[in-house]
């Protein structure tokens, strides 16, 4: 079966799906995106992802290309037409195509792309835990906007791969971890506190991050939002990362050194299980 | 006459020229570009622009999509097919199209786009001088790479337009000007020194910047490379910006206040005239 993509109102074969060479997404990274996980054919946290899309667009003063209801419909069509059981739906919106010039163009219509695909489950990886490295955070200072300006993230993820690691954590000028190249970062401190960085302009406020925060409340876990230093996390009881596609992923190695005795931490495993249980609840209840 | 673009080996009508929705330029800003001015049908500083393209690609480990000689040929074809007298040629190279995933994809071929267009001369603007505003420099920390990750530049230029200005200067954390959203920044200090910021990772080392530096040598002007503060340039004898398309552009207003008594400075006007004289020299001599 060949993949089907949605581009500006039309469902087209994925291989033939294109945008103009003067799309501002291509020429200026003038666009934003969302990746939403699909599990058993159902979107996880669909509403918060669409709300964040609205936020990103609003910060850049790009119009929503479709009403939310229509966008929900397109996502379902993409899931159905691509027979997605477990995988992702990807939405990208750019400021549209226009004669190349930096300022916002008058009269351009936003470009809307929606794609989907099945992907392999990452349970085995969660069972063994992942390795991470650290890299300087050289990104721009509006990481709260989920823009497609991801070149620094690409370089960080590539550095991780070449070091035999799965993720790279960005370190700010003060030696604190901001976030991973595609994940938020968490630790369980020696005191048993669950810690993750506060959501400001230096990180993307992850949807999975927020779901886990709510879960912590439900489970009556102590949660603190503050910066985490590299030396502190190296000594932590456990560490893990969260994202829409990795869910909760335990970290067992940092810059080549064992973390959490080299095995996934108990709390990380528990939060992953709880998160997936929540995601697998019947649809009506899980539309948050 | 309809415009013609070059995309991956083919000359196609500009309106129909497209790239894949999974081009990494569109999804990750994983690409670079060059804008070269055309004057009387001739490229200005063609060789340094191609050398800088090679540098940007090399820093990102993207292969040159064509040999330099072939790329020169394509640029000439674009000039001829679009009958460009005075205007620009735009080159963009991305890491290519691949299933979306942050690390460098195995086996993707770089995407090469070359376009061109005529544009209006900016002599009147140079005669009156331009207004600029300042904005915080929130960009990433590898501005020496001419990547398409230009969202911060877009926002800065838009802010300038909305303030009735032509350019926005980025200010670093220490209060120094890094560069403009699409230009390098210069001043003539109260002591008569010509000053521009040193080329490091915080700015793009402009081709026009370098040509002007050489000109300064020829004209035996005192040139200093160091950071310039906002308060210092507000008191300077004169200020100007340089870029491939603005050449040398005098600045007469900064954040609403007159600069250089509100008229283009003598040295800026002289350097502009010398720069254009150099650009208009017969071809064989000007291929630098």
Structure, explained:
Two copies of one chain form a homodimer. Chain A has 288 residues and is of the alpha+beta class. The first copy, chain A, contains nine helices and 17 strands. The first copy, chain A, has helices spanning 24-28, 46-60, 68-81, 123-128, 151-162, 207-218, 230-234, 266-279, 283-286; strands spanning 4-7, 10-13, 18-20, 31-39, 42-43, 87-94, 111-118, 130-136, 167-171, 176-180, 184-188, 194-196, 223-225, 228-229, 238-243, 247-254, 257-258. In chain A, the strands form two sheets. In chain A, strands 8, 9, 10, 11, 12, 13, 14, 15, 16 and 17 form a ten-stranded mixed sheet that branches. A six-stranded antiparallel sheet of chain A has the order 2-1-7-6-4-5. The two termini of chain A are 32 Å apart. The model of chain A is unreliable at 284-288 (pLDDT under 50).
How would you summarize this macromolecular structure in one to three sentences?
2 copies of one chain form a homodimer. Chain A has helices at 24-28, 46-60, 68-81, 123-128, 151-162, 207-218, 230-234, 266-279, 283-286, and strands at 4-7, 10-13, 18-20, 31-39, 42-43, 87-94, 111-118, 130-136, 167-171, 176-180, 184-188, 194-196, 223-225, 228-229, 238-243, 247-254, 257-258.
